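User: I'm preparing a small set of examples for a lab meeting where we compare how different chains pack in three dimensions. I only have the primary sequence for this one, and I'd like the structure in token form so I can line it up with the others. Please keep the answer compact; I'll paste it straight into my notes.
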Amino acid sequence: MNRYLARRVKDISIKGNSDVNAIFEQMSDSGGFVSKHLADGLQIICDMVNDKQCFKFVSFVGAVISTGLRGIIKDMIRLKVFDAVITTCGALDHDIAKTFSNYYEGDFRLDDKKLADSKIHRLGNVLVPMDSYGPLIESKMQKLLNSIYREGRKELATYEICGMLGKHLNSSSFLYWASRNNIPVFVPGIMDGAVGSQIWFFAQKHRDFKVNLVRDSDKLSEIVFDAKRSGALMIGGGISKHHTLWWNQFRGGLDYAVYITTAPEYDGSLSGALVREAISWGKVKKSAKQTTIHGEATTLLPFLFAAMLKTLKL
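Assistant: Understood. Below is the structure token output for the 314-residue chain.
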């Protein structure tokens, strides 16, 4: 038989008693566009988690923390599915804001001029009252930074700032669970957001207070050089995805890699680049189990996580 015709496409059949794992199994054989990659992603993630010699990263963009997906990311960290987090400053902003206030359902087509008049920010179809964001984050961060400074801590890596911040949040927070489980959270672009701005404002009056990104690099180098194998679930692109790939090149690349994105690859962007493109840079191994899932993370990840819970018996 022609090697290209080794596996036939099978129709998916869903019954009233079909569970999520049975559906994923059928998707693996369906040959159906993104569904095949989604099923492959589940298998790769489960293989990665079951590999006890694999150090596991999760990276994500800040915007998803403004949505209900925050709960799933929090639960993955609570259950210690991953060993380290790489994210953006926006994730810290939204985690703080949602710990102490509420975001609301909106619509992509709302009138932004009217929202501005009503003192409401719009993030896609999520509405963020201004009082729930800037002023709240300023209050919480200045209190934390003053406390840290009084303790004599004047130079901190981002993972140290995140660890301390998590201790002041509650169990709805992914930072809380990362701190409690000793899972480091790295924020390479920490100045790009409200938390970063508050650090800058604090430093204006305390010129000896500094963020030490080199210390982050020291910690990441220890992780990647000590890891027998490494893997990553990357949710969205940008700096969080790139930092994950970048550091793993120093150990010859990731052994497992799953990437969820809505970005196209034809503009040459990092966010649109397929995981397999990273093979050419040595950031993902040639032998790696890897896939790119094209789709919107807040839609896909709940189903992936539900299937992970059953498969891994978490």
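A couple of notes for your slides: The chain has a mean pLDDT of 96. Residues 50 and 241 are 22 Å apart (CA to CA).

User: Perfect, thanks.
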